[in-house]
Amino acid sequence: MKIFNLFLAALFVVSAALQYNDPDPLLWISLYLAVALICGFAAFNKYNRWATLLVMAGCIYQLSILLPAFTQWVRDGMPSITQSMKASSPYVELVREFLGVVISMAVLIFQYARSRYHILKAPPAR
Questions:
Q1: Domain count, the chain
Q2: Domain residues for 57?
């Protein structure tokens, strides 16, 4: 599990680094680095459930903001979002951001579940 968590941490650090030229880089760099830190600490069996819940709450907030653009994309037949952004499809960037938050949320749910397992598995304190 250590290697997997370190891989996730590295993946989210790279994701954060790619956000430097985004229109709102501080938000996305902060989100991805927070997830990277949670994964990095989890690699060494260090869990902070409150931090994980706080970042999850931020993800839920972002998902609620981005959901209208995502539903519009689905209604439009889910056209390709891998093309470059064009004025004719302004939701491309928003859908990409939505999917990034969904991936972040999935990793956070995984880490939260692992933290519960780790706490239940821990030997009793003496």
A1: 1
A2: 2-121
